[in-house]
Write a structure and sequence with these properties.
By secondary structure, this protein is of the alpha/beta class. The chain has 15 helices and 20 strands. The chain has a 7-stranded mixed beta sheet, with helices on both faces. It has a 6-stranded mixed beta sheet with strand order 7-6-5-8-9-19, with helices on both faces. Helix 2 packs antiparallel against helix 4 and helix 3 packs across helix 4. The longest helix is centred in the first third of the chain and has 24 residues.
Length: about 475
Amino acid sequence: MKTIVHNPFDREPVAEVPLIDWPQIDEWLNEAQLLHRDRHGWLAVHERIAILRRAADIMRGRAQDLALQIVREGGKPLIDARVEAGRAISSVDLCVQALSDGGGHEIPMDLTEAGAGRTAYTFREPIGPVVAISAFNHPLNLIVHQVAPAVAAGCPVLIKPALETPLSCQSFVSILHEAGLPEAWCRFAPCGNDIAERMVTDPRTAFFSFIGSAKIGWMLRSKLAPGTRIALEHGGAAPVIVDNGVERAAVIASLLKGGFYHSGQVCVSVQRVFVPAAELKDFANDLGRAAEKLVVGDPADAQTQCGPLIRTEEVDRVERWVDEAIAAGGTLVCGGSRLSDTLFSPTVIVDPPESSKVSQEEIFGPVICVYGYDDIDLAIKQANALPYSFQAAVFTDRLSIANHCIQSLAGSAVMVNDHTAFRVDWMPFAGLRRSGLGVGGIPYTMADMSIEKMAVWNWPTAAS
């Protein structure tokens, strides 16, 4: 069995990747379990640091090739693929920094008579074999966020990439091996969904890292073996509150990036924008005119700003959702149609009904919905009404409104005067409600993939 990787823009085949069957996965899980149980064979911290530093250096020398690979398999515009490759390299560096900054701490014991005469401290140990399943939309940096922390924490790891975009994952795993990581410590494991489910739910899996759809992630969580720990990162329908009288040009420039970056195929992409009703028409028209100027086309062209959706079926789905919203009463400002079997035009819709899919579900396409409001608290209530919660944003010149939105919006992070898709790789990144479980970000993932172990010393008294 094999998967054929296609260029999302022209659907031309790019590569063939063999799929791994269960007997091989079973062997690798046994191997990973034995590696973890052999405590004297664990990779020392200085060895892990050296491997990660060499890997980052190799990636720096191949940054352009890595970016072009992201373009070919994932359809991300070249300008953004170069940024992703740079972020992936920095993420490996962050693992080294986190190892340098990490460690345990002392637990005070003489707070009561029962603890007197004792000393306690903590230190970190690897949690055990890690199984990771990743998504297509950041085919290199997401892999790095799941695999490099496992290597840094000292865990053997098996990584299943999205079958649409396995090449960046394969490259990163090969780079780790080239940098000196023994192959048994990191396995490239592209496989079918049935094999992936067996791998994830196997009792030898100590930690499961998942980036992808909420439906699949929550289903897999329900089937985990007792004791398996988990991190889930799903999507959302990110809301933005725009305050009265905010300078419009800067807001629109930010929303364009946050909503149409990678054609909206981002878990915290700007989707729902709430604007004062008196400004709604002019705001939406300005946003629409700016969206119409975006360059849509071949992601390999350095001028392209919006590339293809990952599959032709996604173009069909986005078209259906937009048509439904317009038929139900939403006003189309721009876009709203497919440009080809793989491209959908950047789209702005005003006041689609709250019951429409574009108002209720994650679009994961190049569509921004704009709603008018007269009462900011009602806008916040509508923003919070969905079962998804990830990152949110507010644009305002007023400190009181910024603080009010920070306190009131139901997100794990609220951006002030920035779009919802803003992220740096060392900050906490967490979906709430149906949007996920646990906290991402390099140092947080490393903490998840290790346990804090405590030693308690009962010192003999001088009299004894």
